[in-house]
Amino acid sequence: MTTPHRITVVIGNTGERSRTKVLAQAIADGLSAALPVTVQTVEIWKLAPQIGPALTPQGLPDEAAAALRAIASADLLVAVTPVYKGSYTGLFKHLFDLVPPDALVGRPVLLAANGGSDRHALVVDHQLRPLFGFFRALTVPSAVYAAEADFDGYTLNSTALQARIDEAVQQAQALLAARAPAQDVLREAA
Fold it and tell me: Residue 189 domain-assigned?
């Protein structure tokens, strides 16, 4: 029997109901259909009161500490953020400021973002890729960007967007197949 891949989906949404969450779920569903996986979701809005005042990961409340462990121990990380003022959300960045610099070395990361229009599509390459480049992660070549026109309310309605998701999922699958299981950097450091 194949051991399921541990996937952590980090959603930079600022509220419970968001298109970012819908996009993240579509990617997680694509991965679940393609691979044996266990999926853990980290939602920024839930962690905001815990991570907002934190300057270091030491002493974080249990839920925030568990989120950092989920990020550090995932075989594949899916990072999805809404676009605000041409970049990812501040709390999204702050969460990753709390992740140890070596925690994601060689880790496959599927990048996705959504914004009001196609004008923001380059946020993935100009903002997210450099962030995960700092961590020396292996970002999936095809990123996913969704504009407001790709949704009908809170439902994906774009076949082109679904094709981008499928392509990114296939590439993530190939990166996972070529890599050993993740080590839990946070646990090893303790």
Answer: no
